Automatic annotation (TrEMBL):
Mur ligase central domain mapped to chain residues: 116-297
Annotated catalysed reactions: UDP-N-acetyl-alpha-D-muramoyl-L-alanine + D-glutamate + ATP = UDP-N-acetyl-alpha-D-muramoyl-L-alanyl-D-glutamate + ADP + phosphate + H(+)
Annotated family: Belongs to the MurCDEF family.
GO MF assignments: ATP binding; UDP-N-acetylmuramoylalanine-D-glutamate ligase activity
E.C. designation(s): 6.3.2.9
Keyword Transferase: no
Protein name in the entry: UDP-N-acetylmuramoylalanine--D-glutamate ligase
Function text: Cell wall formation. Catalyzes the addition of glutamate to the nucleotide precursor UDP-N-acetylmuramoyl-L-alanine (UMA).
Primary gene name: murD
UniProt keyword terms in alphabetical order: ATP-binding, Cell cycle, Cell division, Cell shape, Cell wall biogenesis/degradation, Cytoplasm, Ligase, Nucleotide-binding, Peptidoglycan synthesis
SUPFAM superfamilies named among the record's database cross-references: MurCD N-terminal domain, MurD-like peptide ligases, catalytic domain, MurD-like peptide ligases, peptide-binding domain
Cellular localization per UniProt: Cytoplasm
Pathway: Cell wall biogenesis; peptidoglycan biosynthesis
Organism: Candidatus Endolissoclinum faulkneri L2
Swiss-Prot/TrEMBL GO biological process terms: cell division; cell wall organization; peptidoglycan biosynthetic process; regulation of cell shape
Length: 458
């Protein structure tokens, strides 16, 4: 656990006691801070009961008198649509409202870091960067919105590097973020219920660049309009900028051309690797992820040869286009991490003859933007609270089945794919929705899919 020595003899309020909040309360208490902690969920409060130095107090009643800072769970709103009462009081008092990542950065100043954000592809890119850097023997700690909470990481030291995936929620609570390399992947509509509109979402994401200095680099994938606007603003501001694309050639940047990863930073094109050969990175979106990861490692000074070798040994990311099994010519793919329509579009554009399992907690806009791929879908099996809404949005686009539960959908898709006996068919879990109606998170949803597939195909 990261030691928070700077917190000794100070008083912190911790609101939200999930895993990251619990670790923050514990780390602060171990550092000698006085910690007031609260969560409105009884089971969550049990996470900190018995920890010496942590006192359970209903912060909305007790207030924040004589508190030095509020540590807020990223899931708790502090601006739009309405600030949580505790966050609102902190702002009235002028108290810092920060998260666990800010605590880690204050404890580990001057560490090299690569920070990745974007709507889709963050986890794959983060895992790939961590793999590439680790493959050359560099000490790497990977965390944030992927893997371990940041306070559970180890100090990589001044010769190592932190590789952090950060969401817009986390960036809003990390005012001192100043990455050595900041990677911006893409923007599509997401989390509108939290940020109000696309502009608010983009502003939250742009915090990744706010404190970068002359020795740092901004990497921006310019394959969508909002990202291109961000790149242009960074260039005008004088930031060290590397543009990346998997759609077009970019002299002075990194791009993908017919599957080849190209380094054109010197305005001359040098082939790095043929990404078509990497089974763990299927689809155009993963070529984008690989290009961004390569740009980050090149910016850190590593050679094209080292990067090519590292890409070949990358095993891929669980729950993102993860091939679970192939049975009687039917592939079973776990894409549970596709929690919005833009992520699912990447999967639908890659496969043909799809038995599609879709649904959960719908995001803004639902799945209407997926209509261009409905002709690839043999049947859609609708699950979760969005089942009826998605049925209406699909309309006559493809055959639909109201399955409601994941288990029923998998069994139906398995039986019908085998009965149809079409070579190249794919049973695809790509929900285009969050998991919270039926599962604690997308990992649990994906794990259930994999377990049921193994049961059916064993």
């Amino acid at each position: 656990m990261i030691k928070l020595d700077f917190a000794k003899n100070k008083r912190y309020a911790v609101m939200g006691l999930g895993i990251s909040g619990m670790l923050a309360a514990r780390a602060l208490a171990e550092a000698g801070a006085d910690v007031l902690a609260w969560d409105n969920v009884d089971n969550a409060r049990n996470h900190v009961s018995g920890i010496e130095g942590v006192k359970l107090e209903n912060l909305a009643i007790r207030g924040l008198d004589k508190v030095d800072a509020l540590i807020l769970s990223p899931g708790i709103p502090h601006t739009y649509p309405k600030p949580h009462p505790v966050a609102a009081e902190a702002k009235r008092r002028g108290l810092p409202v920060i998260g666990d990542i800010e605590l880690m950065l204050r404890a580990l100043p001057n560490r090299k870091s690569v920070v990745i954000t974007g709507t889709n592809g963050k986890s794959t890119t983060t895992a790939l960067i961590g793999h590439l850097l680790g493959s050359i023997g560099l000490r790497v700690e990977i965390g944030g919105n992927i893997g371990r909470p940041v306070l559970n990481l180890n100090d990589p030291g001044h010769e190592g590097i932190l590789v952090l995936e950060l969401s817009s929620y986390q960036l809003e609570l990390t005012p001192s973020i100043a990455p050595t390399i900041a990677v911006w992947l893409n923007i599509s509509i997401d989390h509108i219920e939290r940020h109000g509109n696309l502009a608010g979402y983009v502003e939250a994401k742009k915090r990744i660049f706010a404190n970068q200095h002359g020795n740092s680099t901004a990497i921006v994938v310019v394959d969508d309009e909002p990202s291109t606007i961000v790149a242009n603003a960074l260039r005008q501001n004088g930031n060290n900028l590397i543009e990346v694309s998997q759609k077009r050639q970019i002299l002075g940047g990194i791009y993908v051309d017919q599957g080849f990863l190209i380094d054109a930073r010197s305005n001359q094109s040098h082939k790095i690797f043929d990404l078509n050969c990497v089974q763990s990175l299927p689809g155009a979106h993963n070529k984008q992820n690989a290009a961004a990861a390569a740009a980050a490692c090149l910016a850190l000074g590593f050679s094209r040869e080292v990067i090519a070798k590292g890409i070949t040994s990358f095993a891929g990311l669980a729950h993102r286009l993860e091939l679970v099994a192939v049975y009687d010519n039917v592939a079973y793919v776990n894409d549970s991490k596709a929690t919005n329509a833009a992520a699912t579009a990447q999967a639908l554009s890659y496969y043909n003859t799809i038995y599609w399992i879709v649904g959960g907690c719908a995001k803004e806009g639902g799945i209407e933007q997926l209509a261009p791929w409905f002709n690839r879908i043999k049947r859609a099996y609708l699950i979760g609270e969005s089942a009826c809404a998605f049925l209406h949005q699909i309309g006559n686009g493809c055959l639909t089945v109201l399955s409601y539960t994941l288990e029923r959908a998998i069994r139906q898709a398995h039986a019908e794919a085998l009965e149809d006996n079409i070579v190249g068919a794919t049973v695809l879990l790509s929900p285009a929705a969050a998991s919270f109606d039926q599962f604690p998170n997308f990992e649990v949803r994906g794990a259930q899919f994999k377990a049921l597939v193994h049961t059916l195909t064993s």
